[in-house]
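Quick illustration for those who missed Monday's session on complexes.
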Amino acid sequence: MTAMNLRKVKIKGTGNYLPKKVLTNFDLEKMIDTNDQWIYERTGIKARRVSSTEGGEFPTDMAEKATWKALEMAGMEPNDIDMILFATCSPDYQLPNCASVLQQKLGMTNNCTALDIQAACTGFVYGTNMANSFIQTGMAKNVLVVGSEMLSTKVDWTDRTSCILFGDGCGVAIYGAADEGESSEILATTLGADGTGAEFFSQPVGGSAEPINHHHLDENLQFMRMKGREMFKVATRTLAESAKKVLTDAGLTMDELDWVVPHQANVRIIETTAKLLGMSLDKWIINIENYGNTSAATVPIAFHEAIMDGRIKRGQTVLFDSFGAGLTYGATLLRY
Ligand code: ACO
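Prediction with acetyl coenzyme *A bound:
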């Protein structure tokens, strides 16, 4: 297929869902040796949400609730979706995948393609860029991309260096072909990974290489482990490089960019990246204060919030920019 007959891809609808339970820094003070001031100054986080373990707020539950909002915005029915790409590193089950569970929860009867993406925090951007390719080439019509995480089950709540950072939540977007003459479209995409940094952020126990056993449980080894300083350096470098690449590929300047929706891992990472790019922070959508790092969900949660409160408007240029364990990274530049 030549570039001549590639379809333009736009966002048709978005949605999000945040668990009801709020866990503040002051709550954490009662659980571990930390304090609100340390957490806020180092990370910009004040609170995070935690899913109910009783059910109703597992990753596919949150995705279902967020998807109904997106479908309403798009004026679509569940069966209008012909592909689900579900980005998560905290799935409901090992098997089946979340995308298939979500398909069933939405009452879909079209047996659409249903695939999970494990690219950690970059998962939603991976899904977006893959959706773009499938729709551009005519292999899919409407793709639901989900970022949904319940990291509260992956966090070692006794490890003060990491548990303060993470939260639960979900954001989604529905992508489809733009109509003739519409200005909304995905302008440029980039994805990458550098496996040499795999050890900086990992959960080595519980997979095939190291099935979980009593020793792991006794020693609290079953949770996520992070080298925060190393992650910080890689994050700022890759976020800045991905941003520059998509802007160059689309032939846009930094000044022509209206909004950046970055992965919300640490507000210091966002500030440092903005500085590296020579941008002021007023174009950056930042909500980490309320939700912490919800991995694959941060970008779509923040994006939907900014649409709903009127900051991001149709016709404006928006950059999704993310990085995560792997180390994965990627960006999407679009005209909303
Ligand atoms: N409360 C109080 N003190 C603490 C806490 C805490 N919660 N955590 C660590 N400290 C202490 C440390 O023990 C250390 O004390 P010491 O100097 O006596 O040894 C001191 O504070 C400084 O610790 P550092 O780890 O050096 O703190 P740093 O400034 O690097 O901040 C942080 C740590 C916030 C984790 C930072 O490195 C960071 O945000 N890194 C990036 C994390 C990231 O991007 N994660 C995303 C991974 S990918 C994904 O998104 C899924």
